[in-house]
Specification:
Elements lengths: L9 E3 L11 H6 L5 H8 L5 E5 L7 H6 L3 E6 L2 H4 L6 E4 L11 E6 L9 H14 E10 L11 E4 L5 E11 L2 E10 L2 E9 L4 H11 L1 E6 L6 E6 L5
């Protein structure tokens, strides 16, 4: 399977770079942070989670350690080769149709902000297609100030620095973001396209796909639990 590089997405640095500009070696170094705890507190213990865009398994491993079953999906073979302990499936998320239902479907990594609105719609349809009755969809949004105060940087407690170097409009409400990850022994960059969504725009996008917000899981409203909306009869 050959995945074409996504327009407006590129990356630099040591090791393999995926079609959306992600560096495999970089993501293998990034910590899971508090994300697994947010997820674990939002869903029933032992849930089977369909993780869309798992990458190298940064969060996957932490969820397995907490007793969840995980099916990890990513379009990059190099990313999935790093995943341990979970069933893995390679392919574009927006085309995924496993013919299965899951307790939890997770769309993290700000994928809901895909620059192409048609891709965003397809991603959300994939979530709805795979969530079981009574289940939920966990979505990670950009922070509502993500595209402001640029350039900016933060230093992670583990010793690397993340910089948002630039954030420029490229038309039709889409922005091109360039990030740098600086480690003592290596530097990676990633350029990607993002479509900012206000809270109202985000909720309209969910409604269009047949979802609604059940609750915002974090005070900054970055993590969201959504549930399917019963169709009108």
């Amino acid at each position: 399977m050959t995945i074409e590089r996504r327009e407006g997405h590129e990356g630099t640095g040591p090791g393999a770079i995926t079609p959306d500009g992600c560096a495999v070696e970089l993501y293998a170094r990034l910590p899971a942070g508090g994300e697994p705890d947010v997820i674990a507190s939002a869903v029933p213990p032992g849930s089977h989670i369909l993780e869309l865009g798992s990458g190298v398994g940064r969060v996957t491993q932490a969820l397995l350690e907490r007793g969840f079953t995980v099916t990890a999906v990513d379009e990059s073979a190099e990313m999935l080769a790093r995943v341990r302990g979970a069933r893995t499936i390679r392919g574009p998320i927006e085309q995924l149709d496993l013919g299965e239902k899951f307790d939890v479907v997770m769309l993290a990594s700000f994928l809901v902000h895909a620059g192409d609105a048609d891709v965003r719609r397809a991603l959300l349809r994939t979530c709805v297609r795979h969530v079981a009755e009574g289940g939920c969809v966990l979505i990670q949004r950009e922070g509502e100030d993500y595209h402001s105060d640029v350039p900016r940087e933060r230093t992670d407690p583990s010793g690397f620095t993340v910089r948002i170097v630039s954030d420029e409009p490229v038309g039709d409400g889409v922005r091109s973001v360039r990030a740098e990850y600086v480690f003592p022994d290596a530097v990676w960059t990633q350029t990607f396209r993002s479509r900012p969504l206000t809270r109202e725009q985000f909720e309209r996008a969910l409604a269009e796909a047949g979802l609604k917000v059940d609750t915002y899981l974090t005070p900054d409203r970055i993590w969201v639990r959504a549930i399917p909306v019963a169709p009108d009869r």
